[in-house]
Write a structure and sequence with these properties.
Chain lengths: 324, 324
Amino acid sequence: MQSKRISLKEAAARLAKMDNVVILCHKNPDGDTMGSGHAICRALRNMGKNARVACADPLPRKMAYMAAGMEELSFIEEHVISIDVADAVLLGSLKEVYEGRIELAFDHHATHRDFADEACVISEYASACEIAFDLLEELGAPLTKEIADCLYTGIATDTGCFKYAAVTPLTHRKIAALMEAGADHVGICKVMFDTKSLACFKLESEALSALEMHFGGTLALINVTREMMKLGGVTDEDLDSITAIPRKIEGVLCGITVKEKEGEYKVSLRTEAPVDAAKICSMFGGGGHIRAAGCSFSESPESFMPRLLAACGEELKRAGVVVD
Amino acid sequence: MQSKRISLKEAAARLAKMDNVVILCHKNPDGDTMGSGHAICRALRNMGKNARVACADPLPRKMAYMAAGMEELSFIEEHVISIDVADAVLLGSLKEVYEGRIELAFDHHATHRDFADEACVISEYASACEIAFDLLEELGAPLTKEIADCLYTGIATDTGCFKYAAVTPLTHRKIAALMEAGADHVGICKVMFDTKSLACFKLESEALSALEMHFGGTLALINVTREMMKLGGVTDEDLDSITAIPRKIEGVLCGITVKEKEGEYKVSLRTEAPVDAAKICSMFGGGGHIRAAGCSFSESPESFMPRLLAACGEELKRAGVVVD
């Protein structure tokens, strides 16, 4: 299906007329979908409307503050909107429940796949919370401290603490306004960026102790073994966070992480300019972006890894990083 | 000695009249002293003046971009100012050379100890680069891309990437202006926050593998052994960075790091509210701040550590975190 693309002004006008609203967030929720969802929900309630946030998975414990003090309202759902959901599949178990009834989707993903009647997509924004910020302004909804905390969280987490390329001067100006509205930037940053489970620290420690360096320190390789994956308390998110480590090592232009999963091996490649990760992975039936790509293999690592490393070596040579 | 405290406006007026200026930065230079020093130097040069940055230690390699394209100028030094230097002692080897000749000190440390004829101290600012930003505006000096890179670096690094309590809405508005002036936030953040030496990663891995947890996971202890300190390539800065780790573990309210150094042991304590780090350390002849304190001991760890842990346990009980 195709959604009618509408402007933020039009979308705000639609929302202003709605009551008894369900706001859908994506599954495996992050700070951005939950932050924008709760901010819009709180704003609608402050306007005297019935609204609730719905997600296939529960609100992560560390984001409990987003919903603090919000009552469970029971009302007959009249309108359904979504925020930060790039594809109906990402609604998870809620897809079945709501598909076909979603009137309005707010999203910032350039890859948004239409599923709602109308969609307000602003792909220049680094986060859905930046859209929610504009929306609340357009609705004339005051930025309460609680709303400011929600929006701060989403903007900060979806930009890697303001480090990503999609951050703009406007992003920082919105953050300034959210701080003026009382956002607890210290507390939020502590929870979202500076707290890790003991299991995650232990996993990182194990992974680093098994680190291999190749091609004069320009390639780093981490093998996440079955034993590491079985460390008590390690989550999928912790495992994913490992893939960012090799490229953070000074001098590394090609970072590889290999994980054994259900009888096959998953390879994640992260590169720095001018090394092309997608090109390397496409040689092994994988793909992705120029700086982040992946592939998988089911043969033995003893036979596969030398071929992968050779391909990386060729690309490092082509890029002028490694000399024959 | 006592400096005459002057406003930023007055300080800018002084600087506008100076030529052949030396700008002193503190020893062991960080992004803030180097960023503000180079920004002011570049602005003065753009105004047709002679200026140079002076520091007891060289510009760190990762900050080389701050000085890129700046010629070595030779001129007879007429005026001496300092930026981000909280105490003359922090000039290092330049103290002897310049002490008594420093006309104007710019600083953001509330603990600033006067050493210049006049001082412009704005302790509400999270970074010296925020003072430099105001100064350049007052001087009417355009924000070139190079100056914006310098100022962005200092503000970002002195605020832990905008996470610290001293960050204000004004901080973010200045960052917005610096991005508009062309600051390369992605490149700067990559170098300053997301690049670590292999040695530092290895040190962290070793330190974590020796982690001890106490009091139901509310206290984490890292012993930095002599072997860890001897890992090739480990710098003092890397060793210091270890002290931040224990407190980052989920559930930890008291993080301890112990390092053996020249026949004695140095203890660093980092706590979360309501645990008082200074109180614990003061019981062992040390001191510091409420959330970050230290002490040292020369007896054997076998005899000292149980006493330290007992004191921490008492404080955790007092704080209501640990129950008898």
